[in-house]
Amino acid sequence: MTLPCQRHLFDLPDEVAYLNCAYMGPLSKAVLRAGVDGLSRKARPWKIEPSDFFTPLETARELFSQLIGGDPQGVAMVSSVSYGMAIAAANLPLPRAGNIVVLAEQFPSNIYAWRQLALHNRAEVRTVARPEDDDWTRAALEAMDDRTAIVAVPHCHWTDGTLVDLQQIGDRARETEAALVVDGCQSIGALPLDVGVVQPDFLVGASYKWLLGPYSHGFLWVAPRWRQGRSIEHNWIARSNAEDFAALTSYTDSYAEGARRFDVGEVSNFALLPAAIAALEQTLEWGVEEVQATIAILTQRIADRARELGLQVAAEDRRAGHLMGLRLGSRSPAPLAAALQAEKIHVSARGSSIRVSPHVYNNDRDVDRFLRVLDTALRSIPTA
Ligand SMILES: Cc1ncc(COP(=O)(O)O)c(C=O)c1O
How far is the CA of 199 from the centre of ligand 1 (A)? Predict the structure, then answer.
């Protein structure tokens, strides 16, 4: 099922075609209101109760777990994808001469933690080269061997939406006893994922892109076998009995249940959490499958026309429906990006591609305007 255009929920001027959710998702009016209300509570701190440090966290855990088919016990709140990856890297064993499989040109938040870990353990970061046919799954499976300890991949590539079949990678990882770590930053909220099926060891997502939530807030889902692991900071809110503010100096070595021990410090963020919760509620109300199906119609129109204009686009079964790269070949993307910008059409230039990433607030008019400028600009951009 698809959704009718949801633009009325957002503050998007008619003349702006915002096709850049992969850069940053806009807040809906309701999410903005929740954030402003949350921030303004801090103006009257006597109204903030100890329970306010905990109750919204549990709501957020519950909602996020619904989105990914997980359990709330497995959800920790993090500040960024890099923070979540640091937790994964602090807990996953990596034998000497083992390897960590990553994809070429992955986002740095899913690279640096692994480079550091490999360096410390004299292990290898094995980078899967970009396959000509966009089949990352086959290429990653070929790169995995019995020395692979960790596979750290996205659900779709951030530059162009090319897909990774996480179920297949997960199955293979379990056969060789490797851990699967997933960067869901460019997929959670727009591309369905079920942790019961994929069985990742760690799954990280940020609120600020496809969840249309605030910046500096994200989620980490941790598989049961790692929930007794090591946190990377000593957040008092994550210790058992932290609810009893009068007894905080009865220090304890035990943690709150489940993945809560991994919660970032000052996790009870009064401004961000209400906004993140409102954003999750909205995505759940729409349904992730519906979001994907709705956006895919827009990107399909763009892909069809882009091919007619001579651009390369990954085959439909190799790319996600919400995020796509238009490959310009020998043309530079800069003049095209400038022409689009001049018409208030927002996309990203990534390498030799233009990345287009609509959401359910975009309409046919946005796509028409984009295609018109693309058509005109391509005629005037020389090929090298
Ligand atoms: C695939 C991917 N992962 C992570 C991030 C953001 O990482 P962080 O939350 O560490 O800033 C981005 C941002 O563009 C991204 O595209």
Answer: 21
- Give the integer Cα–Cα distance in Å for 159 and 257: 37
Closest atom of ligand 1 to 208 CA is 9
**Could you identify the atom of ligand 1 that is nearest to the CA of residue 186?**
1
For residue 146, CA distances in Å to 134, 177, 318 come to: 25, 8, 27
User: For the chain, where do the domains classified as CATH 3.90.1150.10 start and end?
Assistant: 7-27+287-380
What is the whole-number distance in angstroms between the Cα of residue 107 and the centre of ligand 1? 6
Distance (Å) from CA 97 to ligand 1 centroid = 28
Average pLDDT per block of 10 residues along the chain, 384 residues long: 97 97 98 98 95 97 98 98 98 96 98 98 97 98 98 97 98 97 98 98 98 98 98 96 94 97 97 98 98 98 97 97 95 88 94 93 98 93 68
Structure tokens at 155: 């659900």
Ligand 1 pocket, CB under 6 A: 80-82, 107, 109-110, 154, 158, 183, 185-186, 206
Q: 30-285 is classed in which CATH architecture? A: 3-Layer(aba) Sandwich (3.40)
Picking from 370, 364, 380, 322, the residue whose alpha carbon sits closest to that of residue 345 is 370
Identify the CATH homologous superfamily for domain 7-27+287-380: Aspartate Aminotransferase, domain 1 (3.90.1150.10)
List every span in the chain annotated with CATH 3.40.640.10: 30-285
